[in-house]
Amino acid sequence: MAKLALLFLFALPLLLSLTSLLPLHCNAFSVDRPTDRRLLVLVDDLAIRSSHSRFFSSLQARGYDLDLRHADDPGLALRRYGQYLYDGLILFSPSVQRFGGSLDLAAVLDFVDAGHDLILAADSSTSDLIREIATECGVDFDEDPAAMVIDHTSYAVSETEGDHTLIASDDFIKSDVILGDKKIEAPVLFRGIGHSLNTANSLVLKVLPASPAAYSANPLMKLSSPPSLTGSAISLVSIVQARNNARILITGSLDMFSNRFLKSGVQKAGRSIKHEKSGNEQFVTEISKWVFHERGHLKAVNVHHHKVGETNEPSMYRINDDLEYSVEIYEWSGSSWEPYVADDVQVQFYMMSPYVLKTLATDHKGLYSTSFKVPDVYGVFQFKVEHQKLGYTSLSLSKQIPVRPFRHNEYERFITTAFPYYGASFSTMVAFFIFSIVYLYNK
């Protein structure tokens, strides 16, 4: 009995730790419900819990479980026992020099490489660690640590005269899947640092660019040399959708998410219209829906192909067979899967290169289908669907199938196109017979 009691005492901490992980794993991201998620929020100051409470409340109202921690908390970890504890990461800690616990630059990048999502907000106090994370994601913040985005044409007129660091921008990306189908009427308030996109990274997109008159410089000093970032090359808010469908949002303004900016009225310079409320709340809500896969997340099911007139999927096709191909594609709406409707989904019948390229017809209920004839080439082919569209997760489907030639007993007995050859053969035999008779009996 003493040994059993001792064993129980040693096993109890392990059982408690495993039990504490069960809720995390149950709420983790799943293919069937992409928004069942637990988010880790890292902050420099726990006062952000109240100063940015409206943004956090909007996430919780949509069903997210937030774990708000100090960025240098010694107990921080993204994974334990080989399993990720969170499905999304929000970095509202621009000045952190070093994360606590086992969290570091490599851990954050591995987190994204594993298909998880990231929101990164910076400001004028941004540390080298946050800059490195942004650089690895294809975004370069201004190298001058004191630089801010200044605009003498697109600023909020309510600010103190001469202070043009509070940008009022409404040049949004034209994409309903990223920002929703309801137009953002009021400008978005932005105060912070600008960034440029790495031209070698084709996955980064500007969601909110600066105006052509904007530039990045220290607002407390006179310009002694041309700014390093100017005009529309400056991005205020950018997004990345990685090839593994992980999504990233990067902005140089932590204030953009604050209660003050979400509730503030705004009037853009040069315009007479004054909006009672800025577009920040609608903007950050809609963009966070996209980042956390509440919109634009696709899945494909029931990939099927068969010969015309049949229903069973064959193990191989014969050249010149007529076949039908179908697939069902759905989009996650935030609460359920809805039919995805598009007119540019294509299938390739592929061997080294596409032999057949067909656009799939849709019944507007999620089913995409087409029919075509197998090419007169035998070998190992693939049905391939590669669908990539702005704002949507990419679909990459492939199914291998061999194609064989006709067997010797499957050809027609007499081929119509071979009649001239048949005639030539018989005429040769007749001519030889006549020649033999003439040669043998002619004196």
Calculate Rg over CA atoms: 32 Å
Write out the strand line-up for the largest beta sheet, numbering strands in chain order.
2-1-5-6-15-14-12
Specify the structural class: alpha+beta
* pLDDT averaged residue by residue: 87
Low-pLDDT parts are: 3-29
How would you portray this structure in words?
Helix content is 23%, strand content 29%. With 443 residues, it is α+β, with helices and mostly antiparallel strands. It folds into 3 domains: 21-291, Rossmann fold; 297-404, Macroglobulin (MG2) domain (Immunoglobulin-like), CATH 2.60.40; 416-443. A 7-stranded mixed β-sheet has the order 2-1-5-6-15-14-12, covered by helices on one side. Strands 16, 18, 19, 22 and 23 form a 5-stranded antiparallel β-sheet that branches. A hairpin with a 5-residue loop joins β14 (235-241) and β15. α3 crosses α8. It is elongated, with a radius of gyration of 32 Å. The model is unreliable at 3-29 (pLDDT under 50).
Quick overview:
It is built from 9 helices and 25 strands. The chain is of the alpha+beta class and 443 residues long.
